[in-house]
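Bumping my old thread because nobody answered last time. Still need a sequence for this structure:
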């Protein structure tokens, strides 16, 4: 029985990945900064909270990381932890960099120190690319991050590449474009849109306040994206992959689809709030997943309109 350790198991991706690995017969352990205090709502929502072992671990503390790896003895480690909001990274740049870059480095160094055949998946991000002038980004596209979050993810990406080349670690980064689900918390704009539209449809009178709705993003379905993470660690050689649908849509269209699914006209319920604009933003973010399709046999089945309908149909938005 293979054993997996998921760092950041309480989040959207961690929960879906845990379910996927359990369905494949894995023994699944997960970490959080304070496992005793966390409710693990996403694991409960998927009905798997009693099937995983949860441990407290601080990725910023090398001793903590080493202790957990020694205790669990995993075959595979999935690093999904760290500050996960692009918008919040402008307010918490130090925490963002430390939780992502230092955390990833501690994992790599602990795996190297233990000298065991542990495979590592690292959660990269399309935010590393920054503005690609409208061109779809692939694995050869240069990084020009435009947020503290993007800078931190780019740093972690190169740490993984360095340890892979210097020490022969099986370490792979998935450069994932936006991927959504009902497990997204409210601080993500997609969940904010869905939950506000649902409240209005139920008789609420609030307005949905948004920033720049002309930005374009490549939105996919999170349960499909965790399959790509798993596939990366089943390859003979470690490598990095762009994971995306290959299609970009304006945020305005995401909003329109969400409200239309509830028989509402979005223009009656949306206010543009200049204070919600980011200091720097990416006009269009789109991925080219050809390598993942070719080498992993992975291809997204759901695009943005499908994702919106899945989220609208799900009961109850996340807090």
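Sorry it took so long. Here it is:
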């Amino acid at each position: 029985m293979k054993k997996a350790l998921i760092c950041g198991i309480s989040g959207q991706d961690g929960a879906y990945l845990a379910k996927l690995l359990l369905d494949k017969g894995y023994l699944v352990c997960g970490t959080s900064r304070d496992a005793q205090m966390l409710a693990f709502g996403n694991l409960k929502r998927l009905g798997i909270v009693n099937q995983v072992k949860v441990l407290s671990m601080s990725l910023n503390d090398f001793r903590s990381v080493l202790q957990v790896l020694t205790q669990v003895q995993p075959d595979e480690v999935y690093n999904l932890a760290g500050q996960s909001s692009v918008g919040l990274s402008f307010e918490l740049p130090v925490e963002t960099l430390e939780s992502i870059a230092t955390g990833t480095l501690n994992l790599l160094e602990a795996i190297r120190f233990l000298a065991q055949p542990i495979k590592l998946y690292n959660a990269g991000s399309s935010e590393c690319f920054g503005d690609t002038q409208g061109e779809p980004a692939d694995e050869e596209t240069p990084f020009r991050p435009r947020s503290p979050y993007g800078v931190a993810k780019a740093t972690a990406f190169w740490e993984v590449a360095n340890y892979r080349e210097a020490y022969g670690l099986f370490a792979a980064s998935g450069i994932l474009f936006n991927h959504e689900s009902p497990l997204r918390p409210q601080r993500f704009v997609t969940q904010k849109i869905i939950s506000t539209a649902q409240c209005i449809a139920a008789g609420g009178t609030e307005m949905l306040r948004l920033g720049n709705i002309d930005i374009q993003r490549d939105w996919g379905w999170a349960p499909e994206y965790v399959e790509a993470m798993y596939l990366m660690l089943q390859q003979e050689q470690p490598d990095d992959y762009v994971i995306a649908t290959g299609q970009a849509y304006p945020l305005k269209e995401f909003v329109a689809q969400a409200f239309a699914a509830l028989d509402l006209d979005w223009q009656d319920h949306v206010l543009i709030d200049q204070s919600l604009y980011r200091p720097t933003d990416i006009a269009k973010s789109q991925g080219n997943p050809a390598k993942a399709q070719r080498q992993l046999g992975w291809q997204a089945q759901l695009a943005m309109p499908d994702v919106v309908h899945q989220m609208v149909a799900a009961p109850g938005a996340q807090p």
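DSSP finds eleven helices and 13 strands in the chain. Let me know if any region looks off to you.
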